[in-house]
Amino acid sequence: MPSRTDHWWRSAVIYQIYPRSFADGNGDGMGDLPGITARLPHLRDLGVDAVWLSPFYPSPQHDAGYDVADYRAVDPLFGDLGDADKMIAEAHALALKVIVDLVPNHTSHEHAWFRAALAAEPGSAERERYIFRDGRGPDGGEPPNGWQSVFGGSAWERVADGQWYLHLFDVSQPDLNWGCPAVRAEFVAILRFWLDRGVDGFRIDVAHGLIKEETLADWEYAGEILGGLPPEGAPPPPMWDQDGVHEVYQQWRAILDEYEGERILVAEAWVQPADRLARYVRPDEMHQAFNFEYLTAPWSADPLRKVIDSTMAANGAVGAPTTWVLSNHDVVRHATRLGYPDSENRRHGIGIGDPQPDVGLGLRRARAATLLMLALPGSAYLYQGEELGLPEATEIPDEYRQDPAWERSGHTERGRDGCRVPIPWEADAPSYGFGPSDASWLPQPAVWSEYALDRQRDVAGSTYELYRSALRLRARHGLGTAALTWLDTPADVLAFRTGDLLVLTNLGDPAAELPLHARVVLASEPLTEDGRVPQDVTIWARV
Ligand code: NOJ
User: Fold this and answer.
1) Are 372 and 538 in contact (CB under 8 A)?
2) CA-CA distance, 501 to 506, in Å (whole number)?
3) What is the pLDDT of the chain when averaged over all its residues?
4) How confident is the model at residue 349 (pLDDT cuts 50, 70, 90)?
5) Which 3-state string (H, E, C) describes 143-189?
6) Does 266 contact ligand 1 (Cβ within 6 A)?
7) Of 258, 458, 488, 529, which residue is the catalytic one?
8) Is 410 within 8 Å of 11 (Cβ atoms)?
9) CB atoms within 10 A of CB 262
10) Strand pairing of 493-498 and 501-506?
């Protein structure tokens, strides 16, 4: 059995830090790198193997930093390069790996390249780095095609001289032209810049978007990527998952392999079915891809078993580990998603006036879902605050909303602010210990005090202690590296052997029996008095 440092990424538990909302060192209401560094011991105590940080590069912050103006620096909001070096060094001293976010599909409109493109003529080398086209119609007044932005509205914006540029996301995020050699060379240099600073890997934003179908063939459907599939019968989208992307990642992999240690590439690619996604993790490409099919699966035994099997089979076929994820900065937190009877994803966000979740049910199921996830073979991703059982902030007043989806959708999509609210550390401190002042870039709900870390640490049965125990036992029993064997169970029960443990999740009403002699080592909720597993509970047991 591989040890935890041998191919560490195959079974690593990776904790996503959203820098704006993790810890604020200077009290300006925005999280920052010194804040993160000071709180890293928390992650060591929790027992994760690595951190992935969402972008902290200079940015006008129109898409919370996924609009990068300079890939080799740190936004003053978050600190400076010296702070990044200190954060990396401190993480390594605590035996935590560091993965940074790389955004190659688009830059910010404030990037020097885009400014130069605007100042230059149509047809110039400067424009060639982006996707500029003439418009349709007699005076070119119609966009070059009907592509829609993921955040709503047309994916094209017209500039002063009449040309249009493509932006699959916000208007402030012009798409790069990956057919242009200068773009490829620049990203190789950026990879080396961060590898030389010691990072252990990169999470690749919109990894399925870099190459567009050559003719920019029209496609009339809404530009859903986040959990949305094209409508049935629609042709394959010409902007996603084009075969040409793989050449880019093969080149990057060769570069990472030159470096000491195992540095990794992780694909954020909303690609289905699983065997299409597995192409991103072939042996000469990336190491991992987020398993969004798992994230979006309903809370129901049969679909869960199917997605576990199909994604493990697809990854296994190319020799890659499967990853598991339930929450991130783009989706409604799982403690809230699962608090709706239908466990629907509500990918357009939740606001005041929308149906509100059953918080108790959501947390109960979230704890069960997490224990199930952390027992599966492969690597698991946690999103900051889920170890506290944090729900989505579902009642943010609309005037505070910052997600560009809210404006671009004409106020029809609330967007993703609800999962991005600064997290609570201390129940009775200003900003719940997020920072030294009471400032917080998104308002924190009063209920945050109940979830604060200091209310949960050393409290038996708290969600924080459940995560901590799960991670300790996962390491001790080699979960993540062990194979999985399903056991025969009633329809609403999932049960498997992995390593020397039995894992059982009961999604149905009658309490589930455990085998005689099963000794429960961890349970997401108490068992019944006669030792059966109630609905929406996961247990790990020795048998
Ligand atoms: C995916 C990121 O996770 C999301 O937050 C961002 O808005 C888009 N990519 C565009 O970069």
Assistant:
1) yes
2) 16
3) 96
4) very high
5) CCCCCECCCCCECEEECCCCCEEECCCCCCCCEECCCCHHHHHHHHH
6) no
7) 258
8) no
9) 17
10) antiparallel
Q: What are the structure tokens assigned to 86, written together?
A: 């200190």
With contact defined as beta carbons under 8 Å apart, do 406 and 315 qualify? no
Q: Taking 70 as the threshold, does the pLDDT of residue 229 lie above it?
A: no
Kindly state if the Cβ of 66 falls inside 6 Å of ligand 1.
yes
Spatial distance between the Cα atoms of 247 and 260, rounded to a whole number of angstroms: 23
Is 258 a catalytic site residue?
yes
25-37: average pLDDT: 98
At 475, which amino acid appears?
A
524 Cβ contact partners less than 8 Å away, ≥ 6 residues apart? 364, 367, 368, 370, 371, 466, 537, 538, 539
**Which residue has tokens 């590296």?**
481
Cα-to-centroid distance, 205 and ligand 1 (Å): 6
Cα(63) to ligand 1 centroid in Å equals 8
Closest protein CA for atom 3 of ligand 1: 330
3-state secondary structure of 124: coil
Residue 327 has pLDDT above 70, yes or no: yes
Are 162 and 134 within 8 A, CB to CB? yes
Distance CA 159, CA 151 (A): 20
**pLDDT tens digit string along 182-202?**
999 999 999 999 999 999 999
Nearest to 13 by CA among 99, 103, 117: 99
Active site residue 6: no
Amino acid identity of residue 428, one-letter, is D
> How many Å apart are CA 521 and CA 478, to the nearest integer?
14
